[in-house]
Amino acid sequence: MTAVLDHGGHAHGHDHAHDHPHGWRRWLFATNHKDIGTLYLLFSFTMLLIGGVLALGIRAELFKPGLQLVNPELFNQLTTMHGIIMVFGAIMPAFVGMANWMLPLQIGASDMAFARMNNFSFWLMIPASIIIVASFFMPGGAPAAGWTLYAPLTLQMGPSMDAAIFAMHIMGASSIMGSINIVVTILNMRAPGMTLMKMPMFAWTWLITAYLLIAVMPVLAGAITMTLTDRHFGTSFFNPAGGGDPVMYQHIFWFFGHPEVYIMILPAFGIVSQIVPAFARKKLFGYHSMVYATASIAILSFIVWAHHMFATGMPVTGQLFFMYATMLISVPTGVKVFNWIATMWRGSMTFEVPMLWSVGFIFVFTMGGFTGLICSVAPIDTQIQDTYYVVAHFHYVLVAGSLYALYAGFYYWAPKWTGVMIPEWKGKVHFWLSLITFNVTFFPMHFLGLAGMPRRYADYPMQFADFNAIASVGAFGFGLMQVYFLFVVLIPAMMGKGEPAPQRPWEGAEGLEWEVPSPAPFHTFEEPPKLNADATRVVG
Asked: Which of 266, 280, 307, 503 has the CB geometry, 3.0–4.6 Å to 326, for a possible disulfide?
């Protein structure tokens, strides 16, 4: 018994064989934030691979003009399900997994505030994702209304549409519970001495993201519930024959959808804001301005939704308002990019794998940001609306934004998770080939869009053939690199193969997460740590 009772001075926790469940019970009934974080990350990577296979189906069909592999109906099912799976199944749960793993370690908390609710919010994802994937096998196939689920298409779909609505309700409930957990944990469980303005940027970005999620997930729930009642209960919210308006659906959806875009990028900003100072060996430039910029982006994200709708016949006053508001949101985003570059300026820079992914993120995300700024100009957007230019823009923001930052975070924190160092050459192969194949895939899409190639079409005229062939080859290369990551990087690291990681594997890394051993013990900070003045180290 002495091992269990002996808490004196063991704020870092010593692992004892009997203080946590083993085998399948440990994972099914998991209440430890690290286990749940691991479950989220593995789940999201699985969904990334499934969504990626659907994307490769799209690119294989578009390799040359004509219909090769799938008919237009199945093609639209692929585009719809690729979008839904990537947004709700891959990117969002991956960031929640990062939050579960790292937030308690970063703020000196023993665990998340609501451990059982944490378990529940993860396991809700499993039936929801099964329902989503199974919709391909329902009568009439999967939903084919685009990931935005626009009426009137949604009112004409088969039973799989109801399944998708149900699954998205479940995922929304999971997101709201996870967000409440994150807010309460950050506001109530910080170690003494860690004021809000001493928190790591990752904690700040997640606090703001969690508030965004709580605000907008019910809006999505409202939009899809109205779709459901239109389909089955005789209402006419979006049916013009009964006095409804399909454009109203777009307003409601994008009031959710635009903050959602920032939900998928703000935690990425947080991860990069942790990594750049570590490898520049300098404090983050303009910490306070970073916090205010993050909050500004969140607030402004609520007043820009209709820039997705410039082509719906909006009055000029509305177009001008949403155009200027959208341009305004690029200012705090620019502040962040400036701060990252200023942090690197005259720093003692080294380019280990996490830093490579972060610099790649800044470079390619900024390109995606500029194309977004171009889309914000109403007369230009009217020309490029629903073309491949828009597809190129949001993949630069979401793949090169969210996904690159997730990989940066993985390579940065994996030594703390697994206890082993990932060999640099493995990560560098993954990074460079991913960067090259990503750009080969999506850069030509800008030219396709400017030349007028529309989205969501299974066939196209001959003049678009060359760029489409290049994009398809790049896409298969990019997909191959993620399979490489699975077998060469992820599985060996999870099996503990590699040289043991020191407690502080990166020389310039600051923060409480580097005060616990590698791998992080099952229980950490059972007693709140005593912090130094800038809340980055444990004193004593």
From this structure: 307
